[in-house]
Amino acid sequence: MKQYVFTILLTAGLTFVLAWAVWRLSLKYKLYPGIRERDVHKTPTPRLGGVAMFLGVLAAFAVSAQHPFFSIVWADPQQIYALLGATALIVVVGVLDDLWDLDWMIKLGAQFLAAGVIAWFGDLQIYALPIGGLAVGSSWVSFTLTVFAIVVVMNAVNFIDGLDGLVAGVCLIANSVFFAYSYMLVRDQGESSFFNLASFIAAVLIGACVGFLPLNWSPARLFMGDSGALMLGLLMACSAIAVTGNINPAMIGDNDEFGRSQLLGAFIPILLPVVVVLLPLLDFGLAVVRRMSKGKSPFSPDRKHLHHRMLDMGHSDRDAVLIFYAWTALVSLSVLLMYIGTTLEWPGDYLFGVFYGVLGVAACLVVTFLPSRRRSHAAAADRELAPALENTAR
Prior knowledge:
- Keywords: Cell membrane, Magnesium, Membrane, Metal-binding, Transferase, Transmembrane, Transmembrane helix.
- By secondary structure, this protein is mainly α.
- The protein has 15 helices and two strands.
């Protein structure tokens, strides 16, 4: 564990220093676009924070290559090189878009290219789905499924990047939970290059988010931009695929391997990677349906994302971000507790996770919709006072 803690601290420290340098250089050379109609912030702010995050991630991988503990991660160097090469490609395209607003077709093409590099040259694919021994039928099906999964997660994470500290905080929570899960898989199932790679990627992303968040917290001095959000989505998708797509389905049938609940054990490897990005996926899905129903491109920008709706409900920027944090922690920790309950044979097995989830949902719903009630009461009070004020004016 101490090697992972060192990785997190190293990545966080380097990312913070690099982010500060990128911020200062961006201000000096005015490397920031103007305010767009859909933007929440009112002051032009640099969007090149993703560059600092990428360099921090790159440095962490370089250091790990020299550490014997991470030799299993580097068991297949071509896989790592393909992953980093695809990440570099997506960061470059993201930077160009942050500076000059590229056409969405160019960005989407680059995303498919990056995902294809990982799946083809990196051989990081969804080979099996751990549900009742279900294996992917052919190499082309595996390749296609992997590419689409990576592209969807990249765009899902990018779509929620609209408030100060939102993406960095959500990804910090999600990767922390996923790191705990993948680390426990190594403990329960034994050493695996895929499981260790998933743990390492999650640890690196935790560090990158921790290091970037101080400059991105409201009021933000630096945004991660498309380069940072797409990078986070890409690496999170690869971390999930390294676990879910490479678990031997035969293990699921053995109750001693995945806990006493065979059904739960079968679904957790798929469920947890999904729930840690549930809010981004939900926002992405709603945006695609909303835009296509109006005959627009699914990537045409608008101001109707979930975080925009939270602001319209009466939440402040910071409150909306904290509520997103709460929902992310709720759904991801609930599933993680179910897994812990079955593997450690807690009383009630996964029911503890269900109980936590029910209480958390109730609390989050109250906090989420409270501003609407406040605003409705304020509006009613204004309507009652209006006649009196009108008479006074007369």
